[in-house]
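Researcher: Next entry in the queue.
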Amino acid sequence: MADQQALDEAPPVDGGEAAAKTAHVVFTPSGKRGDFAVGTPILQAARSLGVDLDSVCGGRGICGRCQVVPGFGEYAKFKVKSQPDHVSAVNKVEERYRDKRGLKEGRRLGCSAQILGDLVVDVPPDSQVHRQVVRKRAEARAIEIDPVVKLHYVEVEEPDMHNPSGDLERLEEALEAQWGITVDRADLPVLQSLQKALRDGDWKVTAAVRNGHKLVYAWPGFHERIYGCAVDVGSTTMSVHLTDLQTGEVISSVGAMNPQIRFGEDLMSRVSYVMMNPGGDKEMTAAVHETLGFLIMQATTEVGIEPTDVLELVLVGNPIMHHLMLGIDPTELGWAPFALATNEALRVWASQIGLEGKVNPGARAYFLPCVAGHVGADAAAVVLSEAPQLADKVTLIVDVGTNAEIVLGNKERLLACSSPTGPALEGAQISSGQRAANGAIERVRIDPETLEPRFKVIGADLWSDEDGFAEAARRTGVTGICGSGIIEVLAEMYLAGVIDEDGVIDGAMAAKSPRIVADGRTFSYVLSAADGDNPEIRVTQADVRAIQLAKAALYAGAQLLVDKFGRAPERVVLAGAFGSHIDPKYAMILGLVPDCDLERVQSVGNAAGTGARIALLNRGARDEIRRTVRAIEKIETAVEPRFQEHFVGAMAFPHKTAPFPKLREAVALPARKTADRAGGGDGEEGGRRRRRRRG
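Model: Structure for this entry, 695 residues:
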């Protein structure tokens, strides 16, 4: 076995009588304990007890991962008296590491510090192999770090005429001897670069091993970091989160518009493009592969790491994005019974999805399983992130997008469905709608007495009625209204009486405010007047109707699951890039989801991306979500007769018949208006009814 410098440079321990002595050692917080010969390195003792203490360099004092904190004093609980002289003095290895890398006061390197007497040793969280990444939300479970790929520094015997074995075989022997790892498979890229790595590293290399038995890559000398990418392939946007596989830290997040938008705004229009254009699926696959490669290169370049440092990817997306990313024709998802090519999780070479040269040649891409039909791997990732299957409370999760994916349940049972909400909730199909970008109105408040609005735009911190707004907004402009803005303005218009529960803009309010303007046979609300280069931004009757149709589809899908489950949700989670910006109160006022205590309605951001990150950092999570997905009951809204019934009722704000008692406890909703409206009478009411039937 290779020479261990840490042991060589430690203070000598007397032989004979001293060697026969043992010391009782207790590790916290695990509580594991044992008796060890005096002179045993703390790292060696920890390994023999199965204590969760990290190391990449194998005890050579290079990586600094095995830092521990010896405790001193009387520990009645453990019946141990731990004294400063029960651990060896700081040696040259530790001094060198401290001078070069820094070592916190009181900490020692477990590979260098030796046990000289009874001792209590604390292993801090950042020194644990399976350390946890604590998420900010109190109810969110921590991510335990246990990636599929891990690093191991080894010293390999040089070849000679008396031992003519191959370089790979000697590397495998070194891994077995120094780490107890039995490698039974090696990727071709390893063989293509191994000999040079060994010689450049003076027969010292850092090996990347997958799942404890497969050799993936080798770097010359000591290599400290490896990375992975959690990828969310949305129908509108794509995001890549470059993550340190050993600390769990996201070191770079980048995103871009999905280039497939040029083939169709929504998912079904892209399927139609494939149907009408032979080879259209290959065009879209090539486009999304190119963008993914660009994003990964952007992320690695930003933080200055080499593509070879990226060894693992986890990808999630809806079923059509999932198929197109894999180069699978999505045509069968265009009509009933919406058959997937496969529901199962998939692992492919990263080079098979267009990433050759963008990541390590041995990198793999792992696709989470799809649930069924139009409930995809992104929904599975949201479930992994929010863990309703572990909770007592009935949780409703809505991943809001052009096709909403909805999950309801708890540890007893999970149900899922998809609902075709369309792009209106994201600002598309809205007269002044736009993507969430600088200049887009994202927050709105309307004075119920004067009907005057105030708003905030992305890129400026001030409200429109605050001093300095005009100057701040000059940099961004006031260019349109995004999804969260359209939700808030409609809810505020409803609370102020500008629109009634049926979604009709009340023309009689024009007498109260010049913001209400005639617009053909209907009326519009002017949110922001034209000013210089800034266009007029108004909310039209058609805009209201587009949101009604989208939110009714969303509510109907959720309520259908509530019917099937038999219990109302006790917690509501709004996920997705759009869901992360929705104010839960306004979502409930419009009736996007069934009634729930407002304090238990929350936006959680890109939960699909978080789920992908969990699967990237924890290999056990992959098995967990595969089991969970198999148990989810899929409800197909297209064949459920009550879906249409729920849809019709949900066209009203917040609902035509559902009382929403919990919402009413928190918000004073306006009284229902009569059918008689200024400028309308029977003719206006009749026109409104005809328009509703066409919608």
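Model: The radius of gyration is 31 Å.
Researcher: Noted, moving on.
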